[in-house]
């Protein structure tokens, strides 16, 4: 191997000094040219090293394996002027592969190697971004020995700030708490200022929101209720945080086609478009318009796209979500083996599939499914079948035949079921539950999706006594978050009857708040917004998922089961 010349001071070559100045000013092209020119001033290995430096800079955007190969040719001894850029390039490649933890560590090395204020500012911003990409629960569980020692202050800052980002002054509150902890080493005041500025920008009011609703035609009634909820949330919120302008566009029978309505909203200056309402209309917009402005659809299409558009979000009151939440409630209550009664329609099938899927995922067992006819009131047949009462009667008849005597017996239901799930809407549930009780089901817990319960009060609701499900906070006494409670008071003040305010108003209320918070929720998937329709978060497909609260019908009203759950 050719012997390398001893190191020379960079001042020996004005071009090397000039290259360092160019690098500190992020003038990459000039730095590469100067290093190549400087290589001509030296002989042998020293000249090769300078050419390699230029090659590394020229391949900055290449995969990290290529950069590592080039670095190895320098025996792992990269000049200090390249260390920051080298580690930043490694971190960028790891981010592209979704290796968030590795990217964080590499970006930390880039920060330590920064040689100019500009490089440090950029490295700090990227390190903070990497800390946002790590799931909160993982960030909380990270053991100190797995992190570079001085990164602990950054970790503490992220843990103090991130959980508060959905609040107007959340960043400032988190930073104040972090300062009180006393570990602020290595975090610049300029970064703190930038974090607060970014949060203020993210929380700035939306200039214009457009709603695509079928205000004419068959869905005009539900649309008006969503509209009322949206406006109640608007007028009950802080005036400084309201959208500056709201536009309602009819995409119903007498209005525009859904895709045309979206294009009209974008052309009119909307920063986010809410709606449309039906699955068909949502599909029409997604297939008929280029989604350049964020769209928060008020329904969900199935199945979700494997490569969703970053501008498309889906938010609806899907009964499948309710069924899955009821399955989680059942498991939390210790009900592992569950029999199922489902209607003979497509809606019941979807609800049942969602319940069974969530039950199996949680380790439970679906014992058996019986179908009941949706057009009959006497459902004793499928009820007796799912409870195995017919089998017990048949055994009794066989014994009587063998013994030639009359036996005094009472029908006994199956003993292996911890609970019974009914896939039913209110009318069917009102028929099923009393008959289940009559057929030896008095001590058998009955579960259902939330949409099985009609709400309100009176004699009708007595038929639902003991029913267990998971419900949105909006419909549970004393469970509304503050923003929802303010909107509810606004609706009542406008003359709405309390027992006529339901789920669709809650959907409109949360739609307004999501219009402002959707981008924060997208960037912080570990965060949950406490909404009227549930605790909301955004998954990777852009679907707004709801966490509902376990309840039981007691004396005709909903009673929370939180105290009974582990």
From TrEMBL:
GO terms for cellular component: periplasmic side of cell outer membrane. Gene3D superfamilies: 3.40.50.2300. Keywords: Membrane. GO terms for biological process: peptidoglycan biosynthetic process. The keyword Hydrolase does not apply. GO terms for molecular function: enzyme regulator activity. It comes from the Bacteria. Pfam families: LppC. This is ABC transporter substrate-binding protein. It comes from Spiribacter salilacus.
């Amino acid at each position: 191997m050719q012997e390398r010349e001893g190191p020379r001071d960079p001042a020996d070559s004005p071009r090397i000094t000039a290259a360092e100045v160019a690098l500190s000013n992020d003038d990459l092209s000039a730095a590469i040219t100067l290093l190549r020119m400087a290589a001509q001033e030296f002989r042998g290995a020293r000249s090769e090293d300078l050419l390699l430096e230029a090659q590394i800079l020229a391949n900055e955007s290449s995969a990290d394996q290529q950069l590592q190969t080039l670095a190895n040719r320098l025996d792992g001894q990269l000049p200090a002027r390249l260390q920051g850029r080298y580690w930043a390039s490694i971190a960028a490649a790891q981010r592209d592969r979704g290796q968030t933890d590795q990217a964080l560590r590499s970006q930390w090395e880039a920060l330590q190697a920064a040689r100019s204020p500009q490089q440090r500012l950029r490295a700090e911003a990227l390190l903070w971004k990497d800390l946002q990409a790590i799931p909160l629960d993982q960030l909380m569980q990270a053991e100190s020995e797995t992190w570079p020692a001085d990164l602990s202050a950054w970790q503490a800052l992220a843990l103090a700030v991130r959980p508060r980002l959905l609040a107007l002054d959340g960043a400032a509150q988190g930073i104040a708490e972090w300062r009180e902890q006393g570990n602020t080493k290595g975090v610049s005041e300029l970064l703190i200022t930038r974090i607060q500025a970014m949060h203020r920008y993210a929380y700035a009011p939306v200039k214009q929101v457009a709603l695509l609703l079928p205000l004419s035609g068959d869905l005009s009634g539900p649309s008006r209720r969503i509209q009322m909820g949206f406006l109640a949330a608007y007028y009950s919120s802080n005036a400084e945080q309201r959208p500056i302008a709201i536009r309602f566009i009819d995409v119903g029978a007498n209005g525009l086609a859904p895709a045309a309505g979206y294009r009209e909203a974008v052309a009119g200056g909307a920063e986010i478009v809410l709606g449309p309402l039906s699955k068909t209309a949502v599909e029409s917009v997604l297939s008929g318009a280029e989604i350049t402005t964020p769209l928060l659809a008020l329904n969900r299409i199935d199945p979700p796209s494997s490569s969703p558009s970053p501008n498309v979000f889906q938010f609806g009151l899907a009964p499948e979500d309710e069924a899955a939440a009821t399955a989680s409630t059942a498991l939390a209550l210790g009900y592992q083996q569950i029999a199922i009664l489902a209607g003979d329609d497509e809606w019941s099938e979807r609800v049942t599939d969602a319940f069974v899927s969530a039950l199996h995922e949680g380790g439970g067992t679906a014992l058996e499914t019986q179908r009941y006819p949706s057009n009959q009131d006497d459902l004793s047949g499928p009820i007796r079948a799912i409870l195995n009462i017919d089998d017990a009667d048949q055994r009794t008849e066989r014994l009587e035949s063998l013994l030639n005597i009359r036996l005094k017996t009472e029908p006994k239901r199956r003993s292996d079921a911890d609970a019974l799930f009914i896939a039913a809407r209110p009318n069917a549930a009102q028929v099923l539950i009393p008959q289940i009780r009559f057929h030896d089901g008095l001590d058998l817990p009955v579960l259902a999706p939330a949409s099985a319960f009609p709400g309100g009060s009176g004699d009708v609701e007595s038929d639902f006594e003991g029913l267990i499900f998971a419900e949105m906070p909006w419909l549970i006494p004393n469970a509304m978050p503050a923003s929802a409670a303010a909107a509810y008071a606004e609706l009542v003040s406008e003359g709405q009857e309390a027992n006529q305010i339901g789920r669709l108003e809650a959907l409109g209320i949360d739609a307004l708040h999501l219009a402002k918070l959707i981008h924060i929720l997208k960037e912080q998937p570990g965060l949950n917004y406490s909404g009227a329709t549930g605790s909301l978060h955004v998954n990777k497909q852009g679907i707004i998922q709801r966490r509902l609260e376990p309840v039981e019908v007691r004396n005709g009203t909903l009673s929370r089961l939180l105290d009974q759950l582990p």
